Amino acid sequence: MKRVFVLFSNLVLSIFFVWVFSIWSDTFVSYHYPSVVVSEADAQVNYSHVKTALTDLAHRTDSLIAIQHQEPGEDGKTRFSYTPFGNGELPEDLKKKEIQDPSTVGVEANYFILKGSVTTQKLRNTLSQIGMTNLWIIQPTPLSNLARIFTNGFQLLSIIIFFLTFGSLCLITQIKALRSAGIRLISGENRWKIFLSPLRSDLFNAVGGFALATLAFYILRHIFSLPSLSIYTASTGLLVYNLLLLGIALFFAVLFATGIKKVHLMSVIKGKIPVRGMISLILIGQLLAVIIVSFSMSQTLTYTAAWKQQEQGQVAWQKAKNYITLSASREAIDVGSLDQARPKQIKWLEFMKQAVAEDKAMLVRHHLVDRDRGSGPNSKVLTTSTVWQDYSPQGNVLIVTPQYIRQENIKLSPATSNKVNNLALGEFVLLLPEQLRSEESRYRATFEESMTNLMSTKSLNMTATVDYLPTGQKRFVYNTTPISYQQFLTDPIIIVTTPTSTGPDAINFWNNALQDYFLFNNLETAQALIKQAGFETWVNELKSGYHIYKTLLDNLKREVWFTIAGGILGIATSILMFNTMNLLYFEEFRRDIFIKRIGGLNFFGLHKNYLLAQLSVLLLGLIVSLLLTTNFAVCLLVATLFVINSILLLYRQMRHENRMSMIILKGA
């Protein structure tokens, strides 16, 4: 059984590494080579300064340094390339970029040390001396990468479950060794040999599992074209995993070998063996199993709700496949002082103003992210309902540009439609659901004040033209954010505005909306606007909004299935641990149980103390699970199922022990 488990778990880890590295394939260099991240540079610093300084540093230290370039390809997706400084060739997985025009190269980038004696601190100092600021050193190691992979989400739960399962299997093996320990000790066999002998097979199993998983990863790496560097990290991960399995096996072997030393030989021969400490360990394992299963089930419900929310927009997004979102580069967003950032923000505002004026892009600003971020992952907002009763400025409100009205075919009166298409400075259109007609004056005053404050206008007050929309209407919000999954709002207040009507002081609003809420009509239009503005180095990626939506939807589906699998593994592990617990319990108290049974005690009378111990652990698990998940119904259900499981498995084991007792009494 242990051999099957070790081989199976190693193969699962190997496949998991393939999945992780397929996601990391474009950025895997960041997880392998040390680097310095530059997020800001003085205005006078250009690529020529960087090239001179880093080439000199590379030659002095016999090193190879490379700058990373992030640029959108013809399909809009980010393409990574590298320009080396110093002697040597780039690793085979890195694409080289020849610089034709140094003036078009941004210097706010990642700088990698690919080989040589130069340190990240020396590289940082050199970059700082030529005018780079806001520098961070990244020093990755195989262990830090493994920690990044396995210290969150279902990965952590799965690893804990694997270790608990293997620990239970080791306990069962040692219990079997205990049954013959007395006779083997009389025959002169060393106690360490008795309990360490299973380690030999564990070692062979670990070597076999490591070899099989490494071979599987090597084959899959070629099939999926993964970076060659991934072999090193995957092999390290598999090696660490198998060493930890051997460590668990060694721990229990030492525990049993030292424990049996404290018991007299005659007691061992009579069947009295030191397992009470093991029972305590199993109880702790059961506690972890309860918490893991409760957490997995709660996460499954959460991800399922998010999945259903996200899935509601599938048909609408298929009709809007062409819309493109923009991801700005580090060079485009100045994180320094306001005075340094302002010129770039003004250029972005002019860029967005042109796109809206030429009907080549639209704004769809919602407040779902703010709502969901404040409510937490297990909140009631993760439902399929699109109703939101909050009509405050930060509630059920959409701020859009005129193209949204046309795209969604929202019917307006001729006068309002004309106003939407001809907004003057300081004007916006306020479209209220019909149900709010009686409170027009209140909402007009509220949103005029809100828009004035939101747009940071100093010299004018925003004024509203009010009209009404029929109630019971669902509005598509083009949501591509990874925090909120809702795609529709029922009867939102719709505010129609433009960069021109909000004035030059609305820089912050429009810049903040650029990457998450501003959509271009199609890829060709976005590329043409960017080229016309000279923003080629300011854009990392142009990605289809539909592609972002589908990626998030697929991620949610995967999380649902992974958490379900984690829950199933947790349940299977808990059953194994309950069986192990019962074996230990009967090994320790078989004689006492037999005497009590002869005395006429019923099932609960025989096992009262044992069941109380189990119930105490399950109650503690229920409390901890509640603190972690805040889902009372799920935690109570899991605890109840564990109680029933405990009683049924104990009853089954007792019937087996009773049959064995009768066979012994009959002299069979």
From TrEMBL:
Presence of the UniProt keyword Transmembrane helix in the record: yes
Keywords: Membrane, Transmembrane, Transmembrane helix
Membrane-spanning ranges: 5-24, 154-178, 199-219, 239-257, 278-297, 560-585, 606-625, 631-651
Any single Pfam family the record assigns to this protein: DUF1430
Domain of life: Bacteria
InterPro entries attached to this UniProt entry: Bacteriocin_ass
NCBIfam families hit by this protein: bact_immun_7tm (TIGR01654)
Name the UniProt record assigns to this protein: Immunity protein
Organism of origin: Streptococcus ruminantium
